[in-house]
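Justification of resources, computational component.

The compute hours requested in this renewal are based largely on the per-chain cost of generating structure records like the one below. Each record pairs the submitted sequence with a full structure-token output. That output is archived, and it is also reused by downstream analysis tasks.
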Amino acid sequence: MMRIYRASLLASAIAFAPATGHAQASETPSDPAVVPGPAATPVLGKRVYVVGDFARYAPKTAYDLLQQVPGFTIRSASQDRGLGQASENVLINGQRVANKSGGAIDQLQNVSVNSVERIEIVDASALGIAGLSGQVANVVLSSAAKPSGNFEYAPSFRAHYTKPALLAGSVSYSGKSGPVDYTLSAKYNPGRGGFGGPVLIYDGNGVLTETRDEAYFSQFEQPVFQAKFGLDGPGTSIGNLTLGYGPYWGPGRQLDRRVSVSGETSARDIRTTNTGYVFDANADYEFAFGPGRLKVIGVRHFDHEPLVNTRVDTFDSGAPAQGVRFDRNTRIGESIGRGEYSWKTGKNDWQVSIERAFNSLDQKGRLFLLDSSGEFVETDYPQGTGKVTEVRYEAIGTLSRPLTSNLDLQVAGGAEVSTLDRVDDDQAARKFFRPKGSLTLGWRPANGWDASLKIRRHVGQISFYDFLSQPKLSQDKESAGNPDLVPPQSWRLDTEVGRDLGPWGKTRLNLHYYRVEDIVDVIPIGVGGEGVGNLPRADRLGFESISTIQFDPIGWTGGKVDLSFGAERTSVRDPLTGEKRSISGVRDRWMSFEVRHDIPRTQIAWNAFVNHNHYGRYYYPTEISQNLDLPWIAGFGVEHKNIRGLAVRLSVDNVLNGRHLVDRIVYEGYRNQTPVSYRQKQDQLVGPIFNLNIRGSF
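The structure output for this chain reads:
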């Protein structure tokens, strides 16, 4: 199924020409476009930015500021089960936002730029916050901020196959009443996917046997309502409560018309409906206790995911239609209780954390077959129903301290104990003990240079859906449930080096190596079946370079380039052939290039970008396939930063006709034992994507 794409680079404008008097004026510091690009002020090992450093971009929210920090890449919090140590590289007022409702990044999208005092970029090892590594952004907000609101309207339109997303947008309002601050927000998150064109089917000898004309579209709608409350006091105590609710619905359809070389014609219609809701409650309270501070955190997440997939094949010959329907009613729950106690002794920052997490998936699956009268009749399908639970306890101790004036150390160690159970079968629950921990070094060898090194023992997680059978109607096969699935574990080495180029910008280089045990992949199950399981070992080695180059020093006032590129090489031993190959479906190379120009003496900016993402093949026991959805995408746009106080942008994405590409080789049985049954190739149209974005404050 196609990944729903929403362009991340919406550039735009509606009004273009400035007043004649402005066009003739000389460049002055009052012109935001000629204010020098963001250049940090070094303060005690930090790079410090104030709001004025970003004036040329006319930011509306704190998140707008963060997006323009040179050479900084925002890293969202891990969505693994449980909370664990910090992973999001954004803090608010020096504090981790410990929730599962979008974290600090989501909150900053609702914070007016007038509420921001400064942004500090600092090495994680100097903060004493367990789990962080590399560069971290600390957004410091003013305690005297006035009540304010933000809104955004961001519809998008595709030229082919999909309906327009007309209701995309958000509105939020923040204020304070005594010791309580609050933010109320509503956001509408639509998604669209669509492509169409020929599908070519070849036999094992490469002879064309069938052509198909296919059209696919998917639609996702989700309004999200959220209320956040913060409590300041009594004393030095602070607390937070975040409540969120989001109903969603997502119809999708895949149609094709098939013509075989023998002249036989048929059609396939696959429909998907997914209508459910998500509820989140997150609370934390921190207070002085003994020589340190105690923070208690509670999280509750619930997701109701009813899904209906229907496939019907009809034949022009008059033969009876064939069809299958899979109904899946799933309830997913997560409850987390966590305590963190932190204290300081001399130069040492200590933390001890204890966490309990309970996760569950309760699925009721039903399978129906189309009979000769055109009615769907239920057939026995017990493998599609079941309940999976996990209870996990984690305890970790962390020490952070400076070793020298320019070298910081963080050491963490602990373990997790978990019980994983398929409740409705006759197998005993499985229990696991897994040590985990990390060692992090942060080094500032000279002015403008920073480096970090992190070695950690990481415990991965698995999808509970893989314990139960899941039919794949579009591919005419099934993923068998696997009750023996275990989470992967890995040794991970990450290193990062950064260079501050002053008025020229910032550049960073990241390197990583992971040695993974019990890697999750698709393996043979039973007699001729396949499903998600574990392979003994895999290796991952990669790099990424991230740079922001500003051209004010050479006279191109307001111009800058953001460039990132990377690659990853992976290796795992194939369970069928015994030969080494890449891990299934891994992104193995990528690139992003964007040029932006904020034109002096105007309120106008333009941008152009090109992105590339390449994914390796998927290796199933019965097929090898590769799916590249818009591997290359380019676009451009213009923006007017002040139309009656509004920032308005127009952009067009996929202007170079990026395609939806599929290359699928299907075998008659296991691919190491049987010949090729057929090969499927797709090179299909996606078309241009038009975006409008209007942002303002009140």
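Residues 1-30 have pLDDT under 50 and may be disordered. The helical segments are 20-24, 62-67, 103-108.
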